[in-house]
Amino acid sequence: MSLLQVDNVSRHFGSLVAVSDVSMMVEPGELRAVIGPNGAGKTTFFNLISGFFPPSAGSILFDGKDITSFPVHKRVAMGMARTFQITEIFPELTVRENLRIPVEVAVGLRLSPWQSRKSDTEIRARVAELMELGGLGAKADRLVGELPHGDQRATEIMMSLALKPRLLLLDEPTAGMGDQETYDITKLIRRLHKDQHLTIVLIEHDMRVIFHLADRIMVLAEGSILAEGTPSEIGANESVQAAYLGKAA
Amino acid sequence: MGRQIDKHTANVLVWLLLLTAPYWMSWVGGYTELGSRVLVMALAAMALNFLLGFTGVLSFGHAAYFGLGAYGAAMTIKYLVPSTPLAILVGVLAGTAAAAIIGAMIVKLRGVYFAMVTIAFGQVFYFITFRWNNVTGGDDGLTNWNRMPINLGFTKLDILHNPELFYYFILFYFAISVALMTLLLRSPFGRTLLAIRENERRARFLGIPVERHIWLSFTISCFFVSIAGALYALLNNFVDPRALYWGQSGNFVIMAVLGGMRSFWGPLVGAVIFVVLQDYVSSMTANWESFIGLFFVLIVLFFPRGVLGIIRRKATS
């Protein structure tokens, strides 16, 4: 069974059609890239999957269950986590505090008005583990708002990972990054995919990143699917080259 | 580590000052009732700041729940049972229940819209107490009642005639409330509120049902503000509709911002400045509010993090 099944979703804002009749199946353990020129509807498509707003038509199934009308927090509880194109973090809290919040939510403590010493110890250990994985250990007690862009991005990804998701949605994880930072984040995503077998859907502009990471690629243009296939198939597809790669090259 | 010790020292200092206040207040030109007033206002401002400073939601209508606490307590003693603890209980239940119901209707609103609607609901309660003469006493307020001595069985605490004893009575409620707020803010639940303050979108996508948590924070905040309201009625042996007026809500916001809304003790500092300035300046001129206004403007313009914000910055630099 597919982990994520999107059936013919559309979304319009007034008369503007942002996403039109798009379907997608993502298998467990897969890394799927969504590409397309600016304004192709990629982020809108992500917002539909993650529940930012509901689709105008169509349905979304997660783990076989229809979640089309579920609010965000229920989708998260089912194992869906996402990052944003513009980094969304808690700027005036430290890296440690940023990670602690999702770790506590993930173990069902969000309404807990107190905490046992044992639970506190376990949570600290899990936070330390996540900081290590994200290469943030040395910056644990720095305010996230003061860190360089790459570290903020890494923090956001680790926050999503703290939720122990089954599906991770990454919206342009390398946007606005230099070469070294792009390389580090790509390595991190690759590790999550290969070592932890995490299912990932990612929107990306950087072609090196996509062809390096993706199992399959979906190309959107003007709100519709232009093509879908393996990286080599997409690379050889003429309409994709015309619409997208041609322009970029 | 150094910050931890500083925090600890600050806590010890604050509690020492509060515990000994009746003994040193007269040396600095104060009197015990002024201390009691500071405690009540500080509790109200800290309660508001639970929502404002630690959840990032601005309410301009907290006087409604403060006033419901006050009227609930006053009317219980006047009409039902002459018992001070029961009066506080009824006042707190009235204020908290109203907040829970109104909160549920408005948690979807944000920013200015939320603040405006809290004012509107606050004014509804103001006009009810203002108009409902034969029950609330209308504009003249609720008179001809007073706080009752506490009967502990083995001894009687005459909080009516002994102002020092009444100060400690208020401090008792203040201490319990502050301890509960501290506990909540340090808990996983408290951290979800910080998350909402810092970045609502991120909080939502970490699986926090933001509206439900804001509702909880609003109701908890109003629970504490209605304790302050009940104590306020007992302090004055009187309550009138001005306790629910939106200007009173504004005063709570001023106290919190003046003292520093990002620091736990900030609203206490703000309340001290506000109440003392009010007491001192109003004995010289009827226009005392313009002085507080001027002071407030200067603080906000030059020290947006409030009085405690200045001290903190000095300490770290």
List key phrases describing it.
heterodimer, A: 249 residues, alpha/beta, Rossmann fold, 6-stranded mixed β-sheet, 4-stranded antiparallel β-sheet, B: 317 residues, mainly alpha, two-stranded antiparallel sheet, 2 strands, 75% helix, globular
Question: Could you characterize what this model shows?
Answer:
The complex is a heterodimer of chains A (249) and B (317). Helices cover 41% and strands 24% of the residues of chain A. Chain A has nine helices and ten strands. Chain A has helices spanning 42-50, 72-78, 95-106, 117-133, 149-162, 179-196, 207-213, 231-236, 238-248, and strands at 4-13, 16-26, 31-35, 57-62, 65-66, 80-82, 167-171, 199-203, 216-221, 224-229. In chain A, the strands form two sheets. In chain A, strands 6-7-8-3-9-10 form a six-stranded mixed beta sheet, sandwiched between helices. In chain A, strands 2-1-4-5 form a four-stranded antiparallel beta sheet, covered by helices on one side. The longest helix of chain A has 18 residues, at 179-196. Chain A is globular, with a radius of gyration of 18 Å. The N and C termini of chain A lie far apart (38 Å). Chain B is mostly helical and 317 residues long. Chain B has helices spanning 2-24, 32-55, 62-80, 84-106, 111-131, 133-136, 163-185, 188-198, 200-204, 210-236, 246-259, 266-282, 288-302, 306-316, and strands spanning 150-151, 156-157. In chain B, strands 1-2 form a two-stranded antiparallel ribbon. The longest helix of chain B has 27 residues, at 210-236. Chain B starts with a helix and ends with a helix. Chains A and B meet through helix 2 and helix 3 of A and helix 8 and helix 9 of B.
